[in-house]
Write a structure and sequence with these properties.
Layout: H1 27-50, E1 64-66, E2 69-71, E3 83-86, E4 88-92, E5 95-104, E6 109-112, E7 118-123, E8 130-131, E9 136-141, H2 143-175, H3 180-207, E10 219-223, E11 228-233, E12 240-241, E13 249-252, E14 256-264, E15 276-281, E16 284-300, E17 306-314, E18 325-331, E19 335-341, E20 346-348, E21 351-359, E22 362-367, E23 369-374, E24 377-382, E25 389-393
Antiparallel strand pairs: 1-2, 2-22, 3-25, 4-19, 5-14, 5-18, 6-13, 7-9, 7-12, 8-11, 9-10, 11-13, 14-17, 15-16, 15-18, 16-17, 19-24, 20-21, 21-22, 23-24
Length: 400
């Protein structure tokens, strides 16, 4: 039989404090709370799955190469750093500035040679001194002068004897006391003696002494052949000068001087006779001398690969002196050529190249031949035509 359960009559334990005990949770409320948490977690997962961040795409390359050409894509940051401009063609005047030096005019200088060998006993001038024509320069003690005097005296005496012999044979021939051949021989002896006497006299005159002087000294005084300045001095007191072909000194007339410059072989075509030039001397920094090209050599110096060019200047006050340094500016005639900025050049393997635009934002390297550079402009001899577009700034960014 069924028996109803009996109530528990055991006393319950008192609460730990005076607060009332919390009511026991209901089984239904706990289930609802679990369902809410599960729904929240599922909703978060669904939302997170539908809104996940995409995988980052790969960045495009800043340059695209195709053979020898390079293209700058539209999105490339390199575009903002490039400057492209057309090649200009314009007329320009090129000034060629070259170092030069002052020289004496070779047509106005004389190498002073000793007439005889001898020892230098007196030197009467110094290097750079101005002299007048006939002024004593050097005194030589020369035994050769005594020999020249003796030759003249002997020739003079021989001539006197042959004159007497000739006259005697002529007189005998008139009275029939001489043979014809004897007369002819006397005439021949006379002519030979006369020639010897003229030779001995000319020798003394060449030395510069008086043949009939009673004071026949061995001293020879060498005088200046013309007025000018002593620009070279090769002798000193006490030296024995035994080579009559070696000069003692050089005297030059400096009323006209040359300014000589060496033009590089590659620039020879820019210089011509009669061309206007400006010359600036280090000695006169605030003054410019204007002149014209007098002479352009037909020969290139094999050592320096330069052509000598000379400009003549009148120098009445001797302000310009041999040995002075100067800078010569040659004004070349106007020319037309393609010109680009120096920043457009790209050096590759010791060659100059430019980047030419073959299509919008597409470039190809092209070698160029540079004529010369003037300031920031580069004048081209070959490689580009006027109107072609080239990179004038930032070309190094397109290097491979």
């Amino acid at each position: 039989m069924l028996v109803a359960p009996q109530p528990d009559t055991r006393p319950s334990a008192p609460p730990p404090d005076d607060k009332p005990a919390a009511p026991a949770a209901r089984p239904g409320a706990t289930l609802v709370a679990l369902l809410v948490v599960a729904g929240a977690l599922g909703g978060y997962r669904f939302f997170a799955g539908t809104h996940a961040a995409p995988t980052p795409a790969e960045k495009p390359a800043p340059l695209a190469w195709s053979g020898d050409t390079v293209t700058v894509p539209e999105t490339s940051p390199v575009r903002a750093q490039l400057v492209v401009a057309p090649v200009a063609e314009r007329e320009f005047h090129r000034d060629l500035v070259l170092p030069a030096a002052v020289e004496a005019d070779p047509a106005q200088l004389i190498k002073v040679l000793p007439p005889v060998a001898g020892r230098v006993t007196q030197l009467k001038v110094q290097l750079g001194e101005r002299v007048t024509a006939g002024q004593p320069l050097v005194v030589l003690d020369s035994p050769d002068l005594g020999t020249a005097y003796a030759d003249y005296d002997r020739a003079k005496a021989q001539l006197a004897l042959t004159v007497k012999a000739r006259d005697r044979q002529r007189a005998l021939l008139k009275i029939g006391g001489a043979a014809e051949k004897d007369v002819q021989q006397s005439e021949s002896d006379y002519l030979a003696a006369e020639a010897e006497q003229r030779r001995a006299l000319a020798r003394l005159q060449q030395i510069g002494v008086d043949a009939e002087s009673t004071a026949k000294s061995r001293n020879v005084t060498v005088t200046a052949p013309m007025g000018g300045s002593v620009i070279e001095l090769d002798v000193g007191p006490g030296a024995y000068w035994n080579d009559p072909t070696a000069s003692l000194m050089t005297v030059a007339d400096l009323h006209t001087v040359w300014v000589t410059a060496g033009v590089p072989e590659k620039d020879t075509a820019l210089v011509a006779k009669g061309q206007a030039v400006d010359v600036a001397f280090a000695a006169y920094p605030n003054e410019t001398f204007h002149g014209h090209v007098l002479f352009v050599s037909d020969v290139v110096d094999t050592d320096t690969r330069r052509t000598k060019v000379r400009i003549a200047f009148d120098n009445p006050d001797t302000r310009l002196r041999p040995g002075m340094f100067a800078n010569v500016t040659f004004h070349a005639p106007a020319q037309r050529a393609a010109v680009i900025p120096a920043s457009a050049l790209v050096l590759k393997d010791d060659a100059n190249e430019v980047l030419v635009e073959t299509a919008p934002w597409t470039f190809a390297a092209r070698p160029v031949d540079i004529a010369f550079q003037q300031g920031d402009d580069v004048v081209l001899r070959d490689g580009l035509k006027a109107g072609e577009r080239v990179v004038v700034k930032g070309g190094v960014l397109l290097g491979d």
